[in-house]
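(Deposited chain)
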Amino acid sequence: MRGKKRQLFIGVLFVVILSLLAACVDEGSDADGGSEGGGGSITLYSPETPDLTNELAAKFQEVHGINVNVDYAGTNVLVNQMIAEQGNPQADVWYGGGGILPFEAAVDRDIITEYIPEAAEDWEVTENGIKMKHEDGYYVGTEIFVLGFAYNTELVSEEEAPKTWEDLLDPKWEGKIQFPNPAASGTSTLMVLSYMMQHGEEEGWEYFQQLTDYANSIPDSGSSPTKGVAMGEAEIAIGFDFMAYELKENGEAVDFIIPEETPVLVNPVTLVKDGPNPEGGKEFMDFMLSEEAQEILASWNHIPINSDVESQTPISLETVQEHAIDLDIDWVNENYDRIRDEWNTNIE
């Protein structure tokens, strides 16, 4: 009898231990970001400025009580990482990439999935030439980026600064221009593709050969030319608006010109396909359109997409819409890699 009782006691104890272990596993899943609900932590992939993304993450945690792990790297690095992680995704949300082009390509690569926050459900897909969200819900814009010209205000007056893309070919700018390398920078690839969509490839390659001849430097980084203008290494640089306004806010002699016709893009946020905490990811996407997040973006000189938040720069969504060119996204997707590959072959 003692032996049977001992066996029964051990059996009951074993069941109790298993039950306790199962409860711990369940609690751990909730704490670390299980698939049930949005209460667990989330992982954010972003190529945007680390200080900016960390500020957004901290505010989200303050408002929602959910921890955000930020994984920072360049856009191409993050995209390749998400491709490698297919079948076992590590991220829940991807924010930013210099505009919509990498996100458009990500749809075909099957690394992101559909979700549109309630705040954006009534948005038109394209408004005044600006694609605000994906037509099938694969991404939504969080802010506006404008491609244009930074200039050194100690070397160039606002009146003589270029106002169109053709103005850059004025001989007075020879040796005084910088722009990013289109073979490396998404910012500059956008410049090349948008010009060729409007003028054709033959005229486009002629234009960029002359622009290259006028440049004193063509760095790989999208922000380097604007920084070069601030340091007096160039008088004119091609880049996004916030790059110039951030330097201006820091006291640098830099200002920004919006060309008469130019690419105007949203910078999106999207849900990673099969991420470990999709509900938490959706909450973060909702948050990115909230006043709290939009005020942070505005404080970094990004143009907010939420009309209730005021832009901290001289330009806003309303004022920039008249400059936006209508981008043929299908053409861009079909030719993006080819044009980048052909840059080094066609430009001497």
